[in-house]
């Protein structure tokens, strides 16, 4: 029997998989994040860890767990919270949950594109604040998406799913990516690959779908905002630090870009106070994968990954 430690609260079907395999399951039962000290205590003696994106999986945590640890199964596709090289050094397999949250996250990206370009957040605030309003020919005008260009940064599963939605709204698609997408995908999306400078200069909406790594830190900063159209919108459903938040505030305030939609923040859960002052920023609290169906699928995939490694099998979705 192995000891599986689940560091945060996850949907029950995930726990069921772990228990069905006969493991001893220790789960933190609260929605609130476990204090680090307590987490370090909880993981002691674990053979497998199921971790949330709010937890740093580093040498300290691996040390606290002990040498018997075999697998860290992140209940997230993004794995910037995990020090993968350190896991590798110690022979600990790290896994994530790609695929199962692709549609949910693309839905939120599309929602933010619509909210920002049609000023829905502003409109909502008008009504809720009790401010008098009246239909007017020029009242809260936004911009249409049809025949505009979506620039997708990172054409992985989520980027492609967002592009597919944007196409349905009549947008054209360009993308920048580390590698060329398969020809069939480019044909399906009518998308072509451009360099980042071209993407910045020609896109009406720029949507981020790259992982957060040292090379995507502040990928969008002052220089990039200055290179965008003044009518451009920036949407981030990837990871907060891909955008230089202070520079974004400057760009929004100076009218260098038209607006932004953010699901993730540089110093989550803190939000740059300047953003709160920007009417042209739509701000939502990291809801990309937040559907019952998706969270359940993430939990069961993470559990499948953990039980596979504990059984000496190849896990379905290892981090490469
Ligand atoms: C959510 O942000 C994830 O990476 O799964
Ligand atoms: C990962 O990028 C995914 O699309 O699931």
TrEMBL record:
A Pfam family of this chain: 2-Hacid_dh
Regions crossing the membrane: none
Top-level taxon: Bacteria
The D-isomer specific 2-hydroxyacid dehydrogenase catalytic domain, residue ranges: 4-319
Cellular component terms (Gene Ontology): cytosol
Gene3D superfamilies, sorted: NAD(P)-binding Rossmann-like Domain (3.40.50.720)
InterPro entries documented for this protein: D-isomer_2-hydroxyacid_DH (IPR050223), D-isomer_2_OHA_DH_cat_dom (IPR006139), D-isomer_DH_CS (IPR029753), D-isomer_DH_NAD-bd (IPR006140), NAD(P)-bd_dom_sf (IPR036291)
GO MF, any single term: glyoxylate reductase (NADPH) activity
Keywords: NAD, Oxidoreductase
Residue ranges of every copy of the D-isomer specific 2-hydroxyacid dehydrogenase NAD-binding domain listed in the record: 110-288
Family statement: Belongs to the D-isomer specific 2-hydroxyacid dehydrogenase family.
Record protein name field: Glyoxylate reductase
């Amino acid at each position: 029997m192995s000891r599986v430690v689940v560091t945060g609260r996850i949907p029950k079907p995930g726990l069921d998989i772990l228990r069905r395999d006969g493991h001893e399951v220790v789960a933190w039962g609260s929605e609130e994040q476990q204090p680090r000290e307590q987490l370090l205590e909880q993981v002691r003696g674990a053979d497998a860890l199921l971790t949330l994106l709010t937890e740093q999986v580093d040498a300290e945590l691996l040390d606290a767990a002990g040498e018997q640890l075999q697998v860290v199964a992140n209940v997230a596709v993004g794995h910037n919270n995990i020090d993968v090289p350190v896991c590798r050094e110690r022979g600990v397999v790290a896994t994530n949950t790609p695929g199962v949250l692709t549609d949910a996250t693309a839905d939120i990206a599309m929602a933010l594109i619509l909210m920002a370009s049609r000023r829905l957040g502003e409109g909502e605030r008008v009504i809720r604040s009790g401010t008098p309003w009246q239909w007017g020919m020029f009242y809260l005008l936004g911009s249409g998406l049809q025949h505009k260009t979506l620039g997708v940064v990172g054409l992985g599963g989520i980027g492609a799913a967002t592009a597919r939605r944007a196409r349905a709204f009549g947008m054209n698609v360009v993308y920048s990516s580390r590698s060329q997408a398969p020809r069939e995908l480019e044909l399906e999306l009518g998308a072509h690959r451009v360099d980042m400078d071209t993407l910045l200069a020609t896109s009406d909406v720029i949507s981020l779908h790259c992982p957060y790594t040292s090379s995507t830190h502040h990928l969008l900063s002052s220089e990039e905002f200055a290179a965008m159209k003044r009518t451009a919108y920036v949407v981030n459903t990837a990871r907060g630090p891909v955008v230089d938040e202070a520079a974004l505030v400057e760009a929004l305030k100076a009218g260098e870009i038209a607006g932004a939609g953010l699901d993730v923040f540089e110093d989550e859960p803190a939000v740059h106070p300047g953003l709160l002052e920007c009417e042209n920023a739509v701000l939502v609290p990291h809801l990309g994968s937040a559907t019952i169906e998706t969270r359940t699928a993430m939990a069961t995939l993470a559990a499948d990954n953990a039980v596979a490694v504990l059984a000496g099998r190849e896990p379905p979705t290892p981090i490469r």
